Structure formats: structure tokens, C-alpha cells
């Protein structure tokens, strides 16, 4: 009973606290109750609106309340339509595009067309090609000369008429017909114009493609209004794709109605008369800058702002002047790049103080990734020791081998760079001369590049002529630059492959097995490939009255032609005492077009669809050689690879270099019709990569550790 008093007191105090909120609590409870009652009354008056929506306007169906689905859906049965191929129709291989860019309809940014002539095709046009061709996806040369001899590495289009209006009209028609769907911008220039390719590409990248634009150096017509302007052809001009599409129907009319001695004036009048569009020098904040070079003006002494910022320079009277201009602008771009690097390094150094690590987190050289940090002892990067004559890390496992070839040149370049950096740092107080290399260490860091540590014995010479021998340790780094994506020509798996099989008399029996394998792997699946048999007779073989040693091979080839209608196995007979791959391929290549993709095989080669497709996709004319790896499946003889496959596809002017490998044939033969390399059973080079990692300039920092 004594506990009741405190409980009653606590209850009274609680009620006193809740008494002001009691009307609010009662009102909320009553409102919720009435709302629930009203909802139940509304739902009871009609059907469920969700069920009516599912039933649709077609009326009520048998509805299952448990599943919420129509009973008629359960009776639905899919009908499978079988596919029957007509046996009378020939088999056709379905080809899909190799790249997603083709299916999406994506276009390249810029195509450059150069107007040239008979007199300047082999001089100025070649100079243009050597200075800017590697900067653009496609560079075409248009001339009115009929049957013009094409210089190596240039794509020349001959119209057969050198009249200015005709040449310009046919050039625009050719661009529209063959490249109108593949490029957004078309830059037309003359061969006496130097173009700063990186700046022009950047200009095209900043312009919108969804408008008609005629951009260049605007000039006034003689006797015309001020608004009527044309773009001077000597300084080049840009045409948008949409403008070219609109201009195409008016080309024939303009060619007959407009008379002009200059192609650029003819184009300007055609655009104004037919479309009402004139030339502009500025668009969307982008200014088209050009520079007119005075006669006998030295590019090295030209320093005006108009020259330094120009996209194009005109006129260029000779090829040597073109190369001097290119050297001048390349030096300017290099200086600009180095100055930007120094500014970025200064900014990084200033901001590093504000980071949690402070100056300790600053890597050397500034702006490059920090050295690789191993997580276990198995990931530690080892150093290779070398001297000026020997290296102590040999490929064959030997403890010591001579330092030669590319390794010797690499070490020499590192030593010369170290001396250059030392003299630049301490001159004019000291001048260093190398006596010898004491010790050298190098290693490749995948995150940074090639690192060097050199112990040099130097002779320091003061301004007064005093000399002293010093030993200094120098640390250098040859950094890896950004991976460069090279614009490559388009290749497909539909390219025809021309197989070439040289046969000696001793290989006639083994050739029968090759023909059966060729029929099973190439002819049966209808691969787009042809075969040429090159029958090599000896000096005293196959003469009059003597039996033909290749009679069985010819009979087997004829049997395959009969078995597979439409197939033709050609054969050529040559007589040689010591057969050379160069001479044999020269005989074959003369009977095929210059863009033929050859595959040099042996009787032990077993070409299949996968091997042929690899050759098609990896051998790019003028860009990339392909050396397929092989596995031995037959005997070896001196001078010929008995492997599968030993054939090789390679472009005639491939930029990639190879140190070992197979017998190389050529796609896109130039002046040389074959590229022979001796076969090797020990090493097989891989195909060169399309993405290329460049190497930057050796950057060195010197630290005096040894006195």
C-alpha cells in the first residue's frame, strides 16, 4: 500500500503534461477512422480499376484473380517458321563489318585534296606528301594529266583534262562520289602551299559539322559587290560535307555557264550563283589565319605573329623551301611543347606542398609517374649491369656478352645526354669531358620507362684552364610517352589472297598432299583465295624428250579444277639453276596488280581460313608487315622453312622493322617487288602493333655521389 501513493502521483503528473495535446490526439484518431471508412465504401461500389485496365477495351475476359493474367494467354503457342535454303542458289558468305564505326555510320574528320600539275607532281607534290601525309587520315592528289606516273606512296587521281574549271569540277565530283559519306570536312589546297597540319586538324575539330561552311582567305571578285567573296586557292579552304552535298547537282551547270581562268574563282562564283554562299575567314570564333611569303624570304628569319600563327603559307616556289618551312614550324611546335612542359612542372611543384605527402610525394622527373612499387620479392625490378664494351645480362643466359647493336647505341646516347646536361648546368664555370664509363646500370620500369644510373669518370676544365679528374654518378630516365593511335587504312576479311607455291623437282611428290589440304581448307569452304604454282625446273630437267617431273602436279591441279567448277589453279614454269626467292616473286608479281596480297607458301604449309584472315587483317599496304608465327610440321632444309605456315604477307613499304623471320612477300609492291628475309627455326617475330608507344627525349638529373 505504501507504493500506491508515488504511482498515483506519477500518473497525475503525466496526465497534466498530456492534457494540452489531448484534443489534437483525439482529432487525428477520428479523422483516420473516417478516412478508412470512406475508402471501403468507394471500393465496394464498383470493380477494381486496375482489373478493368488489364481487361482493355475489348471487353471482359476470363481473368484469374490469383495470377492477375488472362486465361487466353495460357493458350498461346509460338509458331516456329523453318528456314529452307534453296539448293539451286549458290552459297554466299555473310559478311559483317569488322568495326563498330562502320555500322554506326561514323565519319572521319578531315580529307585533304591537293591540286597539282604535270610539272610539279614529282617535285612540290612530293614535298607536300613528305611533310603532312602522316598527319591526315587521307591525302589525295588531283591532276589533269592523263596517265600520270604516280610517285611512290602517293594516291594520285588523273582526270585527263588540265582546264581549271574542269579540274575543279571533276575533283569535287570525285570527292562527293567516293568520300562524301566518309568525311565531315574537305580541305582543298594547291601543291605550292605549305600547311601546318596539326593546327588545321585542330581547327576542323572545333567546327560544327551541321552547317554549310566555305572557310578560307576571303578575296573580292573584280567588279563584284563587297559581299561576293571567294576563298583564295593558294592558301587553301575548307568545305563542309553538307555544302558539298548541296553543291553536287549544280556542278554541271556551273561548268557550262561560268568562265574563269582560276579554279578557286570558278568555285566561288558557282557557290554564290547556285547557293548564295560566299567565303568567310572567321566562323564560330575560329579565325582562318594564313601568311603570304615574300619572294626570296628566309623562313628562319621570319618572326612576325602572322607567320608564327599561320595555318598555311603561300607561295612555295620549290621543294627545298617547303622542307625549310616544315623545319621552322616543327621547331616552333617543339619549343612550344617544351615551354608548356616547364610551366606544368612548375605548377605541379607548387601544388605538391599543399598535398598530405608534401614535397616527399614529388616524383622525379616532375610530372611523370612514380617508380613501380613491388608488393613482394618476386616483383622487384632488377638492374642490368654493363660497361662500354660488355653487358652482363645476356639473352641466351651467358654471364657476359659484347655490347653491340641497338644496346650499344642506347648506352652511347645516354652517356652523351648526361654530358650535355652536365655542361648545360655548370657552364661557363666548368666544362666536362668524358674519359670513360666506370659502371652502368639500367632497368625498364613499366610505369615510367628506361632508367639509367651511370658512374662516369670525367675531366673538369675551369675557365682558367685548370683540369681535374672527377667521378660522378648520374641518374637518367628515358620516359615512355603517351600511346599514339595511328590512323590505319581500312582492311576487311573480304580481301583476296594470292597464294604462291614455289616447287622444286624434289618437292613434286609432297605437293600432292598440299593440293589436297588446300582443297579441303580453302576450296571447300569457298575462301576468297587463289593459288599459283611456280614450277622451278633445273637446267637439265623438263627438256625435249625428257619426262616432265611435274606431270603429276599438273594432273592433280586439273583434277581440282574439274572437281570445283569456277576454280582456276594457274601454274608458271621457270628454269633456274639456283632459285632465288627474289627472282621467283619478281616473276609472279609482274602478272598481278600492285595491290595484290601475296602469301608465299611451301609444300609443308597448311593454309586455312584463320591463317588467311590473319594475313588479311594484319598486312596493311604501306603501313604494316605481318609475320605469322609457325609450328614445325615437316623436315627442314637449308634456305627454306619447312613449317606451317612459313608464308608471310607484308606491304611493300612497311614502316615496321624486323630482325628475324620468315620469307616475306609483299602487298602493295613498290619499286622493289619482293622483300626476302631468311627463315629461322628458333625465332618468330610477332606482328607489329597498330598502337605505338613512343619514347620521349632522355631526361637527366645529376647527383654528385662519388668524389
Automatic annotation (TrEMBL):
What's the EC number here?
2.4.1.-
Is Protein biosynthesis among the key words of this record?
no
Report the superkingdom from the record. Eukaryota
Arranged from A to Z, the UniProt key words for this protein are:
Coiled coil, Glycoprotein, Golgi apparatus, Membrane, Signal, Signal-anchor, Transferase, Transmembrane, Transmembrane helix
Q: Where in the cell is it found?
A: Golgi apparatus, Golgi stack membrane
Report the transmembrane regions from the record.
none
Ranges where the record places region Disordered: 679-707
Q: Which residues form a coiled coil?
A: 327-354
Note the topology in the membrane.
Answer: Single-pass type II membrane protein
Among the GO molecular function terms of this UniProt record, one is:
N-acetylgalactosaminyl-proteoglycan 3-beta-glucuronosyltransferase activity
Assigned protein family: Belongs to the chondroitin N-acetylgalactosaminyltransferase family.
Name assigned to this protein: Hexosyltransferase
Organism of this sequence: Suricata suricatta
Point out the gene that encodes the protein. Answer: CHPF2
Amino acid at each position: 500500500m505504501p507504493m500506491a501513493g508515488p504511482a498515483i502521483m506519477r500518473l497525475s503528473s503525466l496526465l497534466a503534461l498530456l492534457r494540452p495535446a489531448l484534443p489534437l490526439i483525439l482529432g487525428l484518431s477520428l479523422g483516420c477512422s473516417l478516412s478508412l471508412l470512406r475508402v471501403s465504401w468507394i471500393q465496394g461500389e464498383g470493380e477494381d480499376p486496375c482489373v478493368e485496365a488489364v481487361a482493355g477495351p475489348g471487353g471482359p475476359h476470363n481473368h484469374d484473380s490469383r495470377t492477375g493474367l488472362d486465361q487466353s494467354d495460357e493458350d498461346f503457342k509460338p509458331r516456329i517458321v523453318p528456314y529452307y535454303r534453296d539448293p539451286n542458289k549458290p552459297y554466299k558468305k555473310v559478311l559483317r563489318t569488322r568495326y563498330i564505326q562502320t555500322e554506326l555510320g561514323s565519319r572521319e574528320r578531315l580529307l585533304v585534296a591537293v591540286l597539282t600539275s604535270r610539272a610539279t607532281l614529282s617535285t612540290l607534290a612530293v614535298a607536300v606528301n613528305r611533310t603532312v601525309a602522316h598527319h591526315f587520315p587521307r591525302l589525295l592528289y588531283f591532276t589533269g594529266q592523263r596517265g600520270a606516273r604516280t610517285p611512290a606512296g602517293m594516291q594520285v587521281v588523273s582526270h585527263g583534262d588540265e582546264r581549271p574549271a574542269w579540274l575543279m569540277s571533276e575533283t569535287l565530283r570525285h570527292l562527293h562520289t567516293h568520300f562524301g559519306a566518309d568525311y565531315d570536312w574537305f580541305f582543298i589546297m594547291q601543291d605550292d602551299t605549305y600547311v601546318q597540319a596539326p593546327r588545321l586538324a585542330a581547327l576542323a575539330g572545333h567546327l560544327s559539322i551541321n552547317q554549310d561552311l566555305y572557310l578560307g582567305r576571303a578575296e573580292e571578285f573584280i567588279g563584284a559587290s563587297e559581299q561576293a567573296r571567294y576563298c583564295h586557292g593558294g592558301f587553301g579552304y575548307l568545305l563542309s560535307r553538307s555544302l558539298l552535298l548541296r553543291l553536287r547537282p549544280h556542278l554541271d551547270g556551273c561548268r557550262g555557264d561560268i568562265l574563269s581562268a582560276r579554279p578557286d574563282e570558278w568555285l566561288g562564283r558557282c557557290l554564290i550563283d547556285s547557293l548564295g554562299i560566299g567565303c568567310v575567314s572567321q566562323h564560330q570564333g575560329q579565325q582562318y589565319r594564313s601568311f603570304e611569303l615574300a619572294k626570296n624570304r628566309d623562313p628562319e628569319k621570319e618572326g612576325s605573329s602572322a607567320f608564327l600563327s599561320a595555318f598555311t603559307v603561300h607561295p612555295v616556289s620549290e621543294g627545298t623551301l617547303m622542307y625549310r618551312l616544315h623545319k621552322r614550324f616543327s621547331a616552333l611546335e617543339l619549343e612550344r611543347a617544351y615551354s608548356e612542359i616547364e610551366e606544368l612542372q612548375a605548377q605541379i611543384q607548387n601544388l605538391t606542398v599543399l598535398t598530405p605527402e608534401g614535397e616527399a610525394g614529388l616524383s622525379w622527373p616532375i610530372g611523370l609517374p612514380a617508380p613501380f612499387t613491388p608488393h613482394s620479392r618476386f616483383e622487384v625490378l632488377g638492374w642490368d649491369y654493363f660497361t662500354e664494351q660488355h653487358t652482363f645480362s645476356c639473352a641466351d643466359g651467358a654471364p657476359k656478352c659484347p655490347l653491340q647493336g641497338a644496346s650499344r647505341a642506347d648506352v652511347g646516347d645516354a652517356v652523351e645526354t648526361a654530358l650535355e646536361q652536365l655542361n648545360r648546368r655548370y657552364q661557363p664555370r666548368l666544362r666536362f669531358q668524358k674519359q670513360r664509363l666506370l659502371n652502368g646500370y639500367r632497368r625498364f620500369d613499366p610505369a615510367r620507362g628506361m632508367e639509367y644510373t651511370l658512374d662516369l669518370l670525367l675531366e673538369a676544365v675551369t675557365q682558367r684552364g685548370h683540369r681535374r679528374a672527377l667521378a660522378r654518378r648520374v641518374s637518367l630516365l628515358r620516359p615512355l610517352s603517351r600511346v599514339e593511335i595511328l590512323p590505319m587504312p581500312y582492311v576487311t576479311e573480304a580481301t583476296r589472297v594470292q597464294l604462291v607455291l614455289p616447287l622444286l623437282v624434289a618437292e613434286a611428290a609432297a605437293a600432292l598432299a598440299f593440293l589436297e589440304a588446300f582443297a579441303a581448307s580453302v576450296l571447300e569452304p569457298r575462301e576468297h583465295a587463289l593459288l599459283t604454282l611456280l614450277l622451278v625446273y633445273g637446267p637439265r630437267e623438263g627438256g625435249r624428250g625428257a619426262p616432265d617431273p611435274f606431270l603429276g602436279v599438273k594432273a592433280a591441279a586439273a583434277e581440282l579444277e574439274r572437281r570445283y567448277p569456277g576454280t582456276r589453279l594457274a601454274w608458271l614454269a621457270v628454269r633456274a639453276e639456283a632459285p632465288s626467292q627474289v627472282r621467283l616473286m619478281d616473276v609472279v608479281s609482274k602478272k598481278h596488280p600492285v595491290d595484290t596480297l601475296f602469301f608465299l607458301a611451301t609444300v609443308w604449309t597448311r593454309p586455312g581460313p584463320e591463317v588467311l584472315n590473319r594475313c588479311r587483317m594484319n598486312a596493311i599496304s604501306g603501313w604494316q608487315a605481318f609475320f605469322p608465327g609457325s609450328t614445325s610440321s615437316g623436315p627442314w632444309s637449308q634456305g627454306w622453312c619447312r613449317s606451317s605456315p612459313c608464308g608471310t604477307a607484308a606491304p611493300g613499304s612497311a614502316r615496321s622493322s624486323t630482325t628475324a623471320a620468315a620469307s616475306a612477300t609483299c602487298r602493295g609492291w613498290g619499286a622493289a617487288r619482293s622483300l626476302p628475309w631468311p627463315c629461322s627455326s628458333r625465332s618468330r617475330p610477332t606482328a607489329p602493333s597498330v598502337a605505338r608507344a613512343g619514347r620521349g627525349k632522355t631526361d637527366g638529373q645529376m647527383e654528385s655521389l662519388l668524389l
